[in-house]
């Protein structure tokens, strides 16, 4: 039986090798040999026609929607309604004073009792009276606005020649310095004579080393003349330098967080820088204006006048009994005047330690102790 099967397999293989697989007609299934019946098909798939090799048309990609930029559409908090008799802070000066004024308006935005009036000229200074004369315009501003506090910041634009007695004097010359100091004094006296407190804010450092060096000299003159005339000088230098005292565009903001304080040109102030400038002045303003800068209580009558502070006087003074100080080494501290004599043992006495070490005598045990072996009396 096995020989017949082997013969059939051999005949099938010979037929396959001689004839090969018959080509399949179009649309008809190919003829399967005996080996394919026994072991499965091993025929190669027919090559694809050129028409089948053509790439399928690509589907058009959907267009991406344009990126949406998150724009803060929330409205800014409206400033608080001011009291009828609100006190005014007048801010005068150059571009630095303008940045300071912006910061003060934000700082006191919620204070119903304070209004910040910003009267600045960015390119002004004390050197050129022909461009803007602060000595001539300040009296009119004070008489019109009647501020409770004057805040001045000038000097950043004054690194230039100044006309003195018809002659153009160089910056830092003796005549230039004398004339500049006199103008600082004259401007301060305008407010002092009108009994208006004046706060003169110093100039912060700049990115330019030469400009910063000149600002140091101007700040020194400002401090000397303003304080000598009765004004208040506010130094802001340390708030805009690093640990080594050099200019820094970044630093701690009013909340103690690291922020960029200066603009890219190393001159202007960012929003955080303006708030920091205002922070220095806010402390002085609170001391001068008092309770008028406190934010209003919700629902309070804003047209009511500011309350007058009253002092409560006690009806009867309380008698305070004071104890004299006692020294720690006072012999009468514990009520005994013979403390040292009472505690000093006789010179010829032997203490229990020496008695035990030298003579082996532990001494008489106290009655009732564990090593008390005496026979109790009946």
Task: Summarize it.
This protein has 378 residues and is α/β, with parallel strands linked by helices. 33% of the residues lie in helices and 10% in strands.
Keywords:
single chain; 378 residues; alpha/beta; Rossmann fold; 5-stranded parallel sheet; two-stranded antiparallel ribbon; 10% strand
Proportion of strand residues: 5-15%
User: Please, what is the oligomeric state?
Assistant: single chain
For CATH, the homologous superfamily of the domain at 87-293 is named as SGNH hydrolase
Tally of helical segments: 10
If you consult CATH, what is the topology of the domain at 87-293?
Rossmann fold
Radius of gyration, Cα only, in angstroms?
Answer: 49 Å
Name given to the CATH architecture of the domain at 87-293: 3-Layer(aba) Sandwich
Helix content: 25-40%
Order of helices and strands: HHHEHEHEEEHEHEEEHHH
Unreliable spans are 50-54, 64-75, 297-314
Largest sheet: 5 strands, parallel
Strand order of the largest sheet: 2-1-3-6-7
How many β-strand stretches?
A: 9
CATH class of the domain at 87-293: Alpha Beta
Overall outline? flat
What average pLDDT do the residues reach?
78
Tell me the structural class: alpha/beta
What is the terminal-to-terminal distance? 129 Å
Overview of this structure, please?
The protein has 378 residues and is α/β, with parallel strands linked by helices. It has helices spanning 2-19, 34-39, 50-53, 95-107, 134-145, 174-193, 209-228, 271-289, 339-343, 352-359, and strands at residues 87-93, 114-120, 149-153, 162-164, 167-169, 198-201, 232-234, 250-252, 258-260. The strands form three sheets. It has a five-stranded parallel sheet, sandwiched between helices. The chain has a two-stranded antiparallel sheet with strand order 4-5. A two-stranded antiparallel sheet has the order 8-9. The radius of gyration is 49 Å and the shape is flat. The model is unreliable at 50-54, 64-75 and 297-314 (pLDDT under 50).
């Amino acid at each position: 039986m096995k020989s017949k099967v082997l013969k059939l397999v051999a005949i099938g293989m010979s037929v396959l090798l001689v004839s090969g697989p018959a080509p399949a007609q179009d649309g008809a299934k190919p003829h399967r040999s005996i080996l394919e019946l026994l072991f499965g098909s091993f025929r190669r798939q027919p090559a694809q026609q050129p028409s089948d090799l053509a790439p399928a048309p690509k589907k058009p990609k959907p267009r991406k929607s344009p990126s949406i930029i998150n724009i803060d559409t929330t409205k800014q908090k409206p400033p608080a309604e001011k009291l009828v008799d609100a006190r005014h802070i007048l801010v005068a000066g150059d571009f630095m004073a303008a940045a300071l004024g912006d910061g003060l308006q934000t700082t006191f935005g919620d204070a119903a009792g304070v209004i910040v009036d910003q009267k600045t000229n960015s390119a002004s200074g004390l050197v050129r009276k022909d461009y803007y004369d602060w000595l001539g315009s300040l009296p009119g501003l004070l008489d019109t606005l009647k501020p409770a506090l004057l805040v001045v910041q000038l000097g950043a634009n004054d690194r230039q020649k100044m006309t003195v007695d018809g002659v153009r004097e160089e910056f830092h010359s003796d005549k230039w310095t004398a004339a500049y100091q006199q103008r600082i004094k004259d401007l301060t006296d305008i407010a002092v004579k009108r009994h208006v407190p004046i706060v003169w804010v110093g100039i912060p450092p700049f990115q330019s080393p030469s400009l910063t060096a000149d600002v140091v000299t101007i700040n020194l003159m400002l401090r000397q003349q303003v304080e000598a005339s009765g004004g208040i000088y506010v130094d802001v230098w340390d708030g805009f330098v690093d640990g080594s005292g050099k200019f820094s565009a970044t630093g701690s903001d009013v909340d103690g967080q690291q922020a960029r304080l200066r603009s890219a040109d190393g001159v202007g102030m960012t929003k955080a820088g303006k708030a920091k400038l205002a922070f220095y002045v806010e402390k002085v303003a609170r001391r001068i204006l008092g309770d008028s800068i406190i934010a209003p209580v919700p629902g309070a009558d804003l047209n009511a006048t500011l309350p007058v502070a009253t002092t409560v006087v006690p009806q009867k003074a309380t008698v305070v009994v004071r104890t004299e100080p006692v020294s720690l080494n006072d012999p009468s501290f514990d009520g005994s005047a013979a403390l040292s004599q009472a505690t000093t043992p006789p010179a010829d006495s032997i203490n229990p330690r020496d008695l035990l070490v030298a003579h082996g005598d532990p001494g008489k045990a106290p009655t009732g102790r564990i090593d008390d072996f005496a026979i109790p009396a009946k």
